[in-house]
TrEMBL record:
GO cellular component: a single term: outer membrane-bounded periplasmic space
Residues in the signal sequence: 1-23
Name of the featured protein: 2-aminoethylphosphonate ABC transporter substrate-binding protein
Binding-site positions, Fe cation: Y226
Pfam families: SBP_bac_6
GO biological process: thiamine transport
Gene Ontology MF annotations: metal ion binding; thiamine binding; thiamine pyrophosphate binding
InterPro entries in the record: ABC_2-AEP-bd, Ferric-bd
Alphabetic keyword roster: Iron, Metal-binding, Signal
Length: 340
């Protein structure tokens, strides 16, 4: 026994003992990505960066945005991976983002990258408004198929529509922002007054209205394109309608939170988020990506989808967000889904 102890001591002194395994860096990442995306994105990043482990905090866009703002003076997140660009613009206005040009950012379309040098955020993909229309339930109720946003305000659809709450959901906010930009503020609010009369409920998720329509709970759900395409591909009796006036939309994007004590790891996340392997992950869910030439045709999303996106002043949408949500809540909160 004494000989073994002496041998171990000698090995230690000579530096021949096996080094202790270095603990992985834990990176706290806030996201509004859909829950079914988070696992795959995490696995891909950690495979490429085995010395870093992601701890995701996931919620809907509005909730994550509010959480980040409430933590401004004591940041808990190191980075954001998958949040609306309009939300990141609000954080930038508050001085909360760390400038960084990820490796490979030059391969992205310039309009999908923050104009600051170096940029405060980098885009990933586009998601846009879509109406999920349950043809079976609509036939039972003799409801015509809508073709436009204007159609949804018709009395025939009273109590038949669900949409996301804009304070909770980025999808809900891009709808409201787009209507105000497309129609002008007065006509936009007049339109939403009429739409409110037909609304069954405002729910706290961008994907939930399409899921509810697919399940037959309501015939019409205002949601976004890729969730609708996924549900239709699985056999849901829904048609996807892309209103002819134009589609409200936003960018999902990545940013580093200023003050992160794990800056090097957060920069690796930003690097990965703009890489081709990451874009191939995004491509499974989105029809327009920040990196050109990666997307493939989707049978349920029109080939001219990008041309159907409405003109979107992101800076205006970010600056006016608080005032718009305050007015929206004053008018329409009575039909909001109870928060769980």
């Amino acid at each position: 026994m004494k000989q073994l102890i002496a041998l171990a001591a000698g090995l230690a002194l000579s530096g021949l003992t096996a080094p202790l395994a270095q603990a992985a860096t834990t990176l706290t990442v806030y996201t509004a990505l859909e829950a079914d995306q988070v696992k795959e994105y995490k696995e891909a990043f950690e495979k490429a960066n085995p010395d870093i482990e992601i701890r995701f905090v996931r919620e809907s866009t509005g909730i994550i945005t509010a959480k980040l703002l409430s933590e401004k003076n004591n940041p808990q997140a190191d980075a954001v991976w998958g949040l609306a660009a309009t939300s990141l613009m609000i954080l930038d206005q508050q001085g909360m983002l760390q400038p960084y040009a990820p490796k490979g950012v030059d391969k992205l379309s310039p309009e999908f990258v923050d104009k600051a040098k170096p940029p405060k955020w980098t885009g990933m993909d586009v998601w846009a408004a879509t109406i999920c229309f349950n043809t079976v339930e609509a036939a039972k109720k003799n409801l015509p198929k809508p073709e436009s946003w204007a159609d949804l305000a018709k009395p025939a659809y009273k109590g038949q529509i669900v949409m996301p709450h804009p304070a909770s959901s980025g999808t809900g906010y891009l709808d409201v922002s787009a209507w105000l930009q497309m129609m002008g503020e007065k006509k936009g609010w007049d339109y939403m007054d009429k739409l409110h009369a037909n609304m069954a409920q405002y729910v706290h998720s961008g994907s939930k209205p399409c899921k509810m329509a697919a399940a037959g709970e309501y015939p019409i759900g205002i949601s976004f394109e890729y969730r609708g395409a996924q549900l239709k591909e699985k056999g849901a009796p829904i048609d996807l309608i892309y209103p002819k006036e134009g589609l409200g939309w936003d960018l999902e994007a990545t940013a580093i939170i200023k003050g992160s004590k794990k800056l090097a790891a957060a920069q690796k996340l930003a690097d990965f988020s703009v890489s081709l392997p990451a874009m191939r992950l995004y491509e499974k869910n989105y029809a327009v990506l920040a990196m050109p030439g990666v997307t493939k045709p989707n049978p349920f999303i029109p080939a001219d989808y990008a041309q159907r996106l409405s003109k979107n002043n992101f800076a205006w949408a970010a600056k006016q967000r608080e005032a718009i949500l305050r007015e929206w809540s004053r008018r329409y909160e009575s039909k909001a889904e109870p928060k769980s």
